[in-house]
Amino acid sequence: MDTVDRLIALDRQHVWHPYSAMPNPLPVFAVRAAKGVRLELEDGRSLIDGISSWWTCIHGYSHPRLNQAAQRQIEKMSHVMFGGLTHRPAVELAQKLIEITPEPLQHVFFSDSGSVAVEVAMKMAVQYWHNRALPHKHKFLTLRSGYHGDTFAAMSVCDPVNGMHPLFNGLLAKQYFADAPQIRFDQPWQERDIASFEALLKAHHQQIAAAIFEPVVQNAGGVRFYHPEYVRRASELCKQYNVLLILDEIATGFGRCGKLFACEYAGISPDIMCVGKALSGGFMSLAATLTTTHISKTFASGEAGVFMHGPTFMGNPLACAVALENLRLLESYDWPAKIAAIEAQLKAELAICRSLKAVKDVRVLGAIGAIELHQPVDMARVQPQFVDRGVWLRPFGRLLYTMPPYIIEPHELRQVTAAMYEVAALL
Which residues carry the post-translational modification N6-(pyridoxal phosphate)lysine, per the record (predicted)? Predict the structure, then answer.
């Protein structure tokens, strides 16, 4: 047995991968190195990463500026507890996040994953109302077809049908689910689209702490692009009914959808915002929950006197230093023009897929392209077909999709879209 085969065999025997089963795991491919937009496999093959390692590596792999930032920081300290201590990378990153997010957001709570950032946001909303002597406001209003993470509170606001609710029935908190928005991003707005959301707020606002949803783009729930007016109207209704608004910008943030943050399409600011994924450019796991001065001021006067949360690796100096450099890198070039070019190419090259028998829809927004199929994807069969074409994509459900690194070149993106067409044509 050669080295690569032994590595894969040991992996299959002992390593439990996400969304897989140990007795019959899905195929895995061993990566030896990664640079730019390419993954180099142990067997010598090279793959163009068309999904930026689950939407994180917006500047590709092993970017010299991010590597240098990490090397500089690791010489000083890779980690120090955040309880009672602080450090320059965290303070400067918080300052940068406040600078680039909507103005009312003035306070940053760091965590180490998007799911935890959502948990923090939900706990923050519940404790806020407790601080204001309204403890009965502890439920959440969210949207069907949404996704917010795999931890328990986050799962409770994921889609109740296609999410994990049936597996954990009786354990997940019961929340309120509005109908998924149906008016697409580029269609004329119709007020009826917000009717379900408004009706639930009207009926249950005395129990609802916050509404939480992904603005404009529902990502892992189906890569659906909906009208920005929905976000604006939802914001107005939350204010009208005295309910906080939490926006999950973990997947949409930092330019992916054509704006720095998706809420900019609606011209609104949330009470609480979650960011993650691309925050550190895929270098290390890092996330943050931002909120307003109005909300934060209630915690000192509340029953606990503090916010009851504190991740062990909160504000990790190494992650913060790389994230700060990643945001500076993003600001150093005309990223809107780059995203616009990717969007135009995706629209032009994926359009032909609409003629395929297996294809139900084709959608593009910013640096996001999706082919929706009539039937679910057979991952065990489809994943190797992309690898054989020199492309790394990770289909799910009925979707073949791409969210490439921003640094991808036109000829590299063309290889990705060609592979998407060829694989869809075989289905």
Answer: 277
User: Known binder of ligand: residue 156?
Assistant: no
Q: CA angle at residue 17 from 154 to 373, to 5 degrees?
A: 75
CA-angle at 325, arms to 123 and 365, nearest 5°: 70
Query: What is the spatial distance between Cα 408 and Cα 395, in angstroms, rounded to a whole number?
Result: 20
Alpha carbon separation from 246 to 16, 119, 169, 209, 281 (Å, rounded): 32, 11, 25, 10, 23
State the pLDDT at residue 408: 98
CATH architecture of 76-331: 3-Layer(aba) Sandwich (3.40)
Active site residues: 19, 147, 248, 277
Element (H, E) at 246: strand 244-248
The number of CA neighbours under 13 Å toward the Cβ of 252 is 29
Q: Is 54 annotated as a binding residue?
A: yes
* Dist. CA 5–CA 421, nearest whole Å: 31
**pLDDT over threshold 70, residue 1:** no
Taking residue 188's Cβ as centre, other Cβ atoms within 10 Å add up to 8
Bridge-based pairing of strands 272-275 and 244-248 is: parallel
State the amino acid at position 58 in one-letter form.
Answer: I
State yes or no: 312 annotated in a binding site: yes
Kindly state the percentage of the chain with pLDDT values over 70.
Answer: 100
- More confident: 36 or 21: 36
**Could you report how far apart the first and last alpha carbons of the chain are, in Å?**
34
Provide the pLDDT for residue 392: 98
Residue 320 banded pLDDT, cuts 50, 70, 90: very high
> Is residue 164 very low, low, confident or very high in pLDDT (cuts 50, 70, 90)?
confident
CATH superfamily of 3-62+334-426: Aspartate Aminotransferase, domain 1 (3.90.1150.10)
**Residue 20: its pLDDT value, please?**
87
The answer to whether 267 is annotated as binding is no
- Alpha-carbon gap, residue 38 to 403, rounded angstroms: 14
Q: Can you give the residue ranges of every domain in the chain?
A: 3-62+334-426, 76-331
Supply the pLDDT for residue 26.
83
| Phi, psi torsion values for 160, nearest 5 degrees | -75, -15
